[in-house]
Structure to design on (342 residues):
């Protein structure tokens, strides 16, 4: 099948068939990537052993605000990790290719390049460090492989709607936050699940899907064990490698609801008008750029990029990217419509 015919077959985002094709393509793309633990291109890895440990706090000393624990911004580019990237000549970034308006390939666009809010940020980091926004190589990383991809050196960083939390700080370092969100319920509009009103007793007896390794999976497991907010009869056994797989299962009737970040859920509701958000966000969370724990100089450099990116009002900046990709689904006045302060 030639490229033009493939794009035609994928036109539109609402149907089950398209979602299945998208997932199949994503799996094929991931299988073609170099195996974890290798770069596959002979380029030097960054942030590996031998570099001084970062000072970012770990889960043991994390506290209530892990998003506030990243090292101070710095424009210094003489550190080992940044130096290695500049010598190599490109930035290696783990992203999603199936999150609508975050990191995805528009089947109706010429070229099929990755685009979205996270992709804009990755290009800006490359522009600031290497002087060229195109000096970046993207790797499609499943949700449950984000941390292994960083630890193995397959990527320099992950820009993939990744929530900063205390557990993850044991394994990776995070930049300052670049987006505010919260967990939310996504469910069909059909009468069969009309009783679901949010993350509350209306989930009794319902089958709930989450992505393996996600914040949602951790939250569901903890709440199921404690019985604090989730009914004991709720079935949380369905987990998938990629969050988009939950939407496919929801469309196929294999689950009744999804728990995921509200920002992602809003984009999926925009893809498929048969589903909708139920209730308000029941957590407050922040996305950060994840990097190797040993690459403190890179973390500080990215934090400086974020300082400038958040305040830029021009063509390249946080506000312009939000208006382009997310304002239609999240609105102009929501908590997500303003960049978080560091």
């Amino acid at each position: 099948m030639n490229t033009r015919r493939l794009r035609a077959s994928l036109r539109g985002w609402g149907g089950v068939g398209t979602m299945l094709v998208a997932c199949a393509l994503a799996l094929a793309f991931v299988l073609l990537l170099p195996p974890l633990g290798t770069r596959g291109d002979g380029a030097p890895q960054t942030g590996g052993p031998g570099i001084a440990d970062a000072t970012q706090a770990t889960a043991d000393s994390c506290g209530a605000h892990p998003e506030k624990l990243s090292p101070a911004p710095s424009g210094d580019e003489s550190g080992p990790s940044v130096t290695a990237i500049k010598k190599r000549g490109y930035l290696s970034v783990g992203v999603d290719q199936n999150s609508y308006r975050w990191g995805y390939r528009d089947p109706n666009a010429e070229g099929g390049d990755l685009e979205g809010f996270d992709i804009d940020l990755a290009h800006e980091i490359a522009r600031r460090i290497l002087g060229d926004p195109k000096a970046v190589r993207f790797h499609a990383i499943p949700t449950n492989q984000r941390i292994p991809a960083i630890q193995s050196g397959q990527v320099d960083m992950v820009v993939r709607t990744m929530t900063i939390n205390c557990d993850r700080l044991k394994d990776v370092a995070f930049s300052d936050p670049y987006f505010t969100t919260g967990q939310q319920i996504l469910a069909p509009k059909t009468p069969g699940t009309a009783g679901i009103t949010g993350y509350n007793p209306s989930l009794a007896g319902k089958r709930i899907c989450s992505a393996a390794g996600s914040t949602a999976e951790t939250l569901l497991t903890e709440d199921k064990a404690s019985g604090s907010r989730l009914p004991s009869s709720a079935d949380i056994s369905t987990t998938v490698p990629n969050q988009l797989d939950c939407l496919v299962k929801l469309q196929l009737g294999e689950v009744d609801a999804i728990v995921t970040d509200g920002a992602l859920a809003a984009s999926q509701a925009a893809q498929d008008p048969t589903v909708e958000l139920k209730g308000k966000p029941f957590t407050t969370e922040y996305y950060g750029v994840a990097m190797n724990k040993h690459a403190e100089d890179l973390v500080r450099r990215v934090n400086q990029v974020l300082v400038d990116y958040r305040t830029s009002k021009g063509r390249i900046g946080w506000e312009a990217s939000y208006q382009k990709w997310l304002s239609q689904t999240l609105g102009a006045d929501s908590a997500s419509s303003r960049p978080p302060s560091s």
Notes: Residues 1-45, 47-55 have pLDDT under 50 and may be disordered. The chain has eleven helices and 15 strands. The two ends are 48 Å apart (CA to CA). The longest strand covers residues 183-188.
